């Protein structure tokens, strides 16, 4: 049971319905649970879902790297819904099952691709140290470009917001699916 009422379309105000319909009409094709929770503040929901659509679908980062960063954030926050939603997307994008399992178990992954290692190390450094040392920053810019690094930071921030929303309002995995992440 969630801590916040997940509105049905029939319960929505005109402003909430406008945001809901705009979200469904966008690249997602649906309104995910965090957006439904945010509808208590329609203006916030509208602005946040637009940022989410950008970082997920229009970023300079290839899906393989953005999904890796999303999984790192989901694991850090133990956001079960986010992990559930993005694990399959990460596999489809080309991340290996062993790498994904290592992230889930908080083990240092083995990387076949240098750009994956950089995204992982950059993400973990920012999460754990609240900064990124110069050598890692330069290597990541060399691999992704400055735009890619800006958008990686934005993606990490956005999915931190998502994870905080899911955890605060106790939004678990959908349809009673098993939670995969250990606390």
Write the topology of this structure:
Elements: H1 14-25, H2 33-38, H3 42-57, H4 63-77, H5 80-93, H6 97-104, H7 114-129, H8 134-168
Helix pairs in contact: 1-3, 3-8, 4-5, 4-7, 4-8, 7-8
List keywords for this structure.
183 residues; mainly alpha; AhpD-like; 2 domains; 8 helices; globular
Cα distance spanning the termini: 19 Å
Q: Are there runs of 5+ residues with pLDDT below 50, and where?
A: none
Number of strands: 0
Strand content: under 5%
CATH top level of the largest domain is: Mainly Alpha
Structural class: mainly alpha
| Superfamily (CATH H level) name of the largest domain | AhpD-like
The main β sheet shows up as: none
Radius of gyration: 17 Å
CATH topology of the largest domain: AhpD-like
Q: What CATH architecture of the largest domain would you give?
A: Up-down Bundle
Q: Could you give the order of the helices and strands?
A: HHHHHHHH
Shape: globular
Mean pLDDT: 96
Count of folded domains: 2
Give a description of the structure.
This protein is mainly α and 183 residues long. Helix content is 67%, strand content 0%. It has 2 domains: 9-57; 63-176, AhpD-like (Up-down Bundle). It contains 8 helices and no strands. It has helices at 14-25, 33-38, 42-57, 63-77, 80-93, 97-104, 114-129, 134-168. The radius of gyration is 17 Å and the shape is globular.
């Amino acid at each position: 049971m969630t801590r916040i009422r997940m509105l049905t379309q029939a319960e929505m105000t005109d402003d909430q319905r406008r945001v809901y319909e705009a979200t469904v009409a966008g690249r997602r094709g649906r309104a995910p649970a965090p957006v439904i929770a945010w509808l208590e503040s329609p203006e916030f929901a509208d602005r946040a879902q637009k940022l989410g659509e950008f970082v997920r679908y229009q970023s300079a980062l290839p899906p393989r790297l953005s999904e890796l960063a999303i999984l790192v954030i989901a694991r850090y926050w133990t956001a079960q819904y986010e992990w559930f939603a993005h694990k399959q997307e990460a596999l489809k994008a080309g991340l290996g099952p062993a790498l994904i399992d290592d992230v889930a178990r908080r083990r240092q992954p083995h990387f076949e691709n240098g750009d994956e290692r950089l995204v992982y190390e950059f993400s973990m450094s920012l999460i754990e140290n609240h900064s990124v040392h110069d050598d890692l920053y330069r290597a990541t810019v060399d691999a992704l470009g400055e735009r890619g690094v800006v958008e990686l930071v934005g993606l990490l921030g956005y999915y931190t917001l998502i994870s905080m929303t899911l955890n605060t309002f106790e939004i678990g995995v959908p349809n009673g699916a098993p939670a995969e992440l250990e606390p």
